[in-house]
Amino acid sequence: MIAVLGKLLDVLGFLRFVLRRWAEDRCHQIAGSLTFTTLLALAPMLAVVVSLLSRAPFFEDVMVQIKVFLLLNLVPEIAYRIITVYMEQFAENAGRLTTLGVAFLFVTAIALMLTVDRSINAIWRVRSSRPMWISILAYVVLLSIGPMLIGVSVSITT
């Protein structure tokens, strides 16, 4: 009985600690900010990915494979609308981006990734984060090589 009571007190103490840290770190505000930033970052990242992929010779094959994947894994009505209307428009618009537009979206995507990185570091109370140039270099590599890896992955798996 005493062991069970001790475990219960440990659990309650841990919950009190978590709730106190949650309030101190303003986690509800950071969670909302991260949600908004992540959703905001998706558009430029997808535009950069599609723009870079559209310049590749295998782009049409990859788009067909992505369409098949979406049709098989989403609700048919939603998937059909996404594929026939929105995906075609997005790919067409992203393919018409100029070099300056791609560069601007690239910088925007990196800035949003840095914001997410800083927020996560604040939540985990990271005392010394990595140097800014290393973070920027990592995100540039991710945005540059990521589309190619996505294209290879989709073509291998479908």
Q: How does the helix and strand content classify structurally? A: mainly alpha
Q: How many strand segments?
A: 0
Task: Give average pLDDT, whole number.
Answer: 79
Q: What is the CA-CA span between the terminal residues?
A: 57 Å
Radius of gyration: 22 Å
Percent of residues in helices: over 70%
Strand content: under 5%
Query: Number of folding domains?
Result: 1
Main beta sheet, described?
none
Uncertain regions spanning at least 5 consecutive residues: none
- The geometry reads as extended
Task: Give the count of helical stretches.
Answer: 6
Sequence of secondary-structure elements: HHHHHH
Structure report:
With 158 residues, the protein is mainly alpha-helical. The chain has one domain. Helix content is 87%, strand content 0%. It contains six helices and no strands. It has helices at 2-24, 27-54, 59-73, 76-95, 99-123, 132-157. Helix 2 (27-54) packs across helix 6 (132-157), helix 3 packs across helix 6 (132-157) and helix 5 packs across helix 6 (132-157). The longest helix has 28 residues, at 27-54. The N and C termini lie far apart (57 Å). The mean pLDDT is 79.
